[in-house]
Amino acid sequence: MKKIITVIGARPQFIKAAVVSKALLANKNLKEIIIHTGQHYDHNMSKIFFDDLKLPKPAYDLKIGSKDHGAQTGLMLQKIEEVLLKEKPDLVLVYGDTNSTLAGSLAAVKLHIPVAHVEAGLRCFDKTVPEEVNRVITDHNSALLFCPTTNALDNLKKEGLTKNVYLTGDVMYDSILLMIEIAKKQSSIMKNLKLNPKKYCLATIHRAENTDNLERLKEIVEALNESKKEIILPLHPRTKKYLAEYKIKTAKNIKILEPLSYLDLLILEKNASHVITDSGGMQKEAYFLKTPCLTLRDVTEWVETVSTGANTIVGADKQKILAALKKPDSTIKELPNHYGNGKAAQKIIEILKRF
Ligand code: UD1
User: Fold this and answer.
1) pTM
2) Of 69 and 332, which is predicted with more confidence?
3) 258 CB near ligand 1 (under 6 Å)
4) Quick check: helix, strand or coil at residue 256?
């Protein structure tokens, strides 16, 4: 039997890992051991996802918590190494682009344990974005690279990475196909918030490039205030902290909530007139759910969502945000399937079995 150690730690990774873990559990020849780095630790940033997604309880909870990048990644590296030395896995599986991804891949490659990276090959070509640094290094640490799109595959090729590179489709698409049906049955968020479909926007802001920059955060919030639209804004702890620190006020049209569960978030994304976000995952979720998206960044890794017209890059530019929100609501009808067929997890398992 092959022993696989999965390293996860932040909200988007719980979502991505859940579908693969489920497929791993169904496979007798592969045994998965989960390490949770503790990068996200609040109940509604972590535990609630494990519960909703039925993700197995981590065998190791490293409880690293929030720190500066160096300290956070360094501590993770040290503690993950201890577990790897004890468990001696055949492979380490990492997801996405967070500090937990980087630490997991680095700890493993230094011990000559092969690394498999799910969501390999994404690039925004800006090294001031912490996630970009994490992705590039993780891809180069990896022995197996699972790309969600052909564009990701091309990016790796340009960096000379062609061996053991696979186009699997996107595990987030697998996840949404499964979870949206559960969400429809279980979520009462629309009723609880007294919302009408397509009469509100859903906004999220959490990236360092927006939150840690007074000008950008102010401009984004001003745009939301001036839009006069009903805006639901579940606040990431980082954003909450900076809004208070910069003394930026939100107007009455903005309803601030605590971070939401995956199920409630999916329902709000599906029923919103627009999703306004700097999250990578939400750009795709909006796309899968056919809700127009405004991306609060100057670039995106998910270029397919933009080329199909479903996603508009608005940066932190008030006029661009307001103009995009004024465009008549065009419900997106059909979208090309750039992200696979909903069986990415299964493809990944087949490759892991053969490796
Ligand atoms: C991290 C990832 C980002 C991902 C995001 C999803 C990195 C570099 N960034 O960013 O790619 O899109 O997760 O949310 O790895 N905090 C809490 N409670 C928590 C978690 C965090 O209060 O449960 C606070 C911390 O005190 C800190 C802030 O949130 O001030 C940032 O947390 P951190 O995990 O460092 O980065 P994220 O911004 O969440």
Assistant:
1) 0.95
2) 69
3) no
4) strand
